[in-house]
Amino acid sequence: MAATTARGHRIGLIVPSSNTTMETELPQLLQRQKTGGARFSIHSARLRLTQATPEALKAMNDSAGDAVDALGDAQVDAIVYACLVAVMTGGRRCMCDTHTRLAERAATPTRRPSVITSAAALVSGLKALKAQRVTLIAPYRKALTAQVNATLGEYGIEVVQSRSLEVVDHAAVGRLDQAKLLSIASQLDYSGSDALVLSACVQMPSLDIIEEAEQKLGVPVISAATASAFELLNQLDMEPAIGNAGSLLRPSAARPRGQAPFDSLTR
Prior knowledge:
Elements: E1 9-16, H1 22-31, E2 40-47, H2 54-62, H3 64-72, E3 78-81, H4 84-88, H5 91-106, E4 114-117, H6 118-128, E5 133-138, H7 142-154, E6 158-164, H8 170-173, H9 178-186, E7 195-199, H10 210-217, E8 221-223, H11 224-235
Helix pairs in contact: 1-11, 3-5, 6-11
């Protein structure tokens, strides 16, 4: 159970060094939370990453434990490891192993902060929406997107269509135009999809258009950032109640505790 201080919830956030989006979108989402009377402070640690290549992503993922140690010094109540592709490209086993490794690293004799990965959060969010067949948009090269799609498939979520924007420079991903992202999404066919993953990357901005996309396209719309906020609130025992961010974060979307995707690895 995550601890709560009199000053509110202290959230540790691990991001790639070139990330410029998650430290904007996650605080905005938490500021909109309407129930529980909670306040949040965000405390970041950065891991070196400039290019979204398999080698660089693996090296960053391997160093995540050091960031957990640094955030532990701030006595945070929860830690969000916000790099979806670094974890998902290793498949379901990597997702489970990463969570276990970081949770064990974060635990001390006196504190046990919740640990959330954006990769596992995306799975939890899609399952909360009962989305078995999805459309996905990612900034990565096609090979990386295919690995993300395959990992979702290991959790029983079929990606029926995906679009890869082929942007390798991670800083450039943070400068992508949300209006153009909505235009890309509008060109796809959703007749066989239960939901749209509008941004399968915590660095690709999408928060400003999620609600508009959901209303325009007629399917639930989720991003790595909204999924991370959803999972974080659940781990803090708070029912999500955030407006203008898609149906996942409305109160009715909250799922039962204890069903995080890494819990069911051997089932």
